[in-house]
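Appendix C: a fully annotated inverse folding record. The material below is reproduced so that readers can follow the format used throughout the book. The structure is listed first as tokens, followed by the designed sequence.
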């Protein structure tokens, strides 16, 4: 059966009241009766009315078969109210057992999902998969926490057990307001906002094609070097994480050069767009760290809808009204330059490191297109000339695409100063029924 309550959650900013609703997996394997669906619905409506975060603990084998369509109707009404919560109050699900069929779909409606290591979730189970496709597959391979952490992106975090899951929810709530009408809580820190970060620039390799872990830069910028990465196992070419700068919670979005060279693909675009939209809904400033040579090329990606999914990133940033600070660390080429919160996308402050390369494409690619008939020696000379003339941030700064070229060691101070200036930023949006997000 499902039980709902107002629960205090201990966070760094003090006890936070949240609405919790738990489905007991020990009672009929958590099969949802009509009454259980009504309990989830009431909890969600209460969260909306009281303007409190909603935490849903799920261990359910699906709708109760012996209750017939009434059970389906129950979780359908729960799904409707969860949708109403979207963008109004934070919604978080903990999966501590099975989440099958309807309950699995509820996971797609909440903002973040925390799964315990032995939990699983799927819409159609192994038996149905084998019956319809002829492919034998086990529960863990089909919908285990590892599959949702690496392949589907459903799991924001995977932890050991229910206690660790509740602690993870508390850590997540550290960065979130209770509802969309207030700012996130300030996080106490003794870390000076103007602290120098020489380690941020030191991580960049001398070779333009060398890789590094962008999370090193992220941790250098964050208070006390602490960040909470979400969906770290999925779409690893883009890193999304929460942290704070000067005690102010921020959302980090960063290309990851050590995975697919930091290019953007379909999963990366979906991951980034979802995170940007969440931060915008709950008044969390965005810090975008850019180092990407562009979109990942491939026939398969194009046929699967790279255009539509790549547009999701552009759409999310373009409609975001929270403070937005962009830092180009090394490369920013082509369409990926645009969608990684460029100045003309409405970015508030655009910064760049001296080694940054901001252009339509790299020197080698440009010369091969424009001067393909030249000798190798001539093309090499043209590449050097292209790099000197166009591949530096000062050209972009002259044209107003970059606000300042900064020393890497001053990045934390500059970002903190920008956030201070933007603290009172407010944008008035024109009323409309809803937008039409590219899906």
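Designed amino acids, in order:
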């Amino acid at each position: 059966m499902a039980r709902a309550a107002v629960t205090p959650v201990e966070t760094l900013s003090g006890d936070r009241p949240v609405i919790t609703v738990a489905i007991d997996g020990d009672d009929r394997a958590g099969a949802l009766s009509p009454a259980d669906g009504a309990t989830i619905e009431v909890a969600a409506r209460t969260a909306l009315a009281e303007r409190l975060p909603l935490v849903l603990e799920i261990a359910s084998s699906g709708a109760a078969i012996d209750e017939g369509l009434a059970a389906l109707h129950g979780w359908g009404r729960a799904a409707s109210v969860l949708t109403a919560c979207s963008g109004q109050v934070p919604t978080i699900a903990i999966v501590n057992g099975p989440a099958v069929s309807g309950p699995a779909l509820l996971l797609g409606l909440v903002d973040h999902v925390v799964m315990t290591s032995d939990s699983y979730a799927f819409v159609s189970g192994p038996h149905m998969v084998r019956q319809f496709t002829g492919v034998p597959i086990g529960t863990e391979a089909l919908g285990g926490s590892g599959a949702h952490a690496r392949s589907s992106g459903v799991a924001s975090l995977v932890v050991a057990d229910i206690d660790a899951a509740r602690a993870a929810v508390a850590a997540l709530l550290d960065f979130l307001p209770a509802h969309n009408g207030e700012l996130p809580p300030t996080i106490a820190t003794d870390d000076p906002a103007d602290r120098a970060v020489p380690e941020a620039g030191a991580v960049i390799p001398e070779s333009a094609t060398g890789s590094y872990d962008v999370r090193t830069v992220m941790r250098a910028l964050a208070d006390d070097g602490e960040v909470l990465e979400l969906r770290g196992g999925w779409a690893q070419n883009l890193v999304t994480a929460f942290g704070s700068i000067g005690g102010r919670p921020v959302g980090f979005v960063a290309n990851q050069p050590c995975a697919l060279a930091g290019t953007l693909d379909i999963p990366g675009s979906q991951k980034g767009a979802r995170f940007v939209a969440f931060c915008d809904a709950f008044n969390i400033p965005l810090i975008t760290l850019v180092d990407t040579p562009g979109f990942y090329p491939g026939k398969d990606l194009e046929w699967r809808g790279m255009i539509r999914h790549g547009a999701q990133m552009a759409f999310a940033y373009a409609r975001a009204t929270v403070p937005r600070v962009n830092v180009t660390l090394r490369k920013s080429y082509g369409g990926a330059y645009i969608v990684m919160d460029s100045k003309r996308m409405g970015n508030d402050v655009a910064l760049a490191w001296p080694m940054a390369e901001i252009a339509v494409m790299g020197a080698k690619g440009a010369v091969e297109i424009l001067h393909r008939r030249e000798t190798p020696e001539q093309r090499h000379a043209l590449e050097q000339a292209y790099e000197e003339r166009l591949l530096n941030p000062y050209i972009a700064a002259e044209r107003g695409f970059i606000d300042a070229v900064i020393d890497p060691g001053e990045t934390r101070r500059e970002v903190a100063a920008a956030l201070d200036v933007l603290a009172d930023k407010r944008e008035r949006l024109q009323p409309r029924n809803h937008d039409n997000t590219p899906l």
